[in-house]
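Our consortium's second objective concerns turning raw sequence data into structural hypotheses that experimental partners can test. To show how far this objective has progressed, the report includes one record in full. It was chosen at random from the queue rather than selected for favorable results. The single chain below, 166 residues long, was entered without modification.
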Amino acid sequence: DLGPGLGYIANEIANDVKHLICVDISSSFLEKCKSELSDHKNVSFLKINYANLKSVQGVGTTKVYATAVMIHFNIYDIYLYLQELNNCLMPGGKSLFDFLEMLEFDSTDDTFKRHAVFYSKDRSRLEQVIQYNNFVAIKNIAEQLGFQVTKLREGKQPFVLLEKLR
């Protein structure tokens, strides 16, 4: 689980997997996640540095998911994290994530307006506001890194499934 937040999704998935690793750049979110998943003995927690998944390379990772994480990423963040995913996934491994589609952008959206106010007050915390991207750009990056790309859901917040080819 890349960016598990409070661990709600990890809590649902933990019973269906052999081992789950929750990785995050935030110590406070990892602590909250640990508390939520305290009943699961097959879950480990790992603090990472920005765009650095080296600590989970070579452990046989076959699946990675990130929900409501890449909605905060600009195109450079997506590129850097997809590079890292490519390095830690086994061939045939899959990754699922969502993002905000620029072609569906609506400046009257309440979430956008709330984040615009937050950004106007503190522009140094860009990583905390939502970012809009484009499926074609994400697809191009992923394919150039060696992934097969499938869009699983259309709309404002599509899901993308990547499969590592090599």
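The partners drew two points from this record. DSSP finds five helices and eight strands in the chain. The helical segments are 8-13, 27-36, 75-88, 110-121, 135-144. Both points have been shared with the crystallography group to help prioritize constructs.
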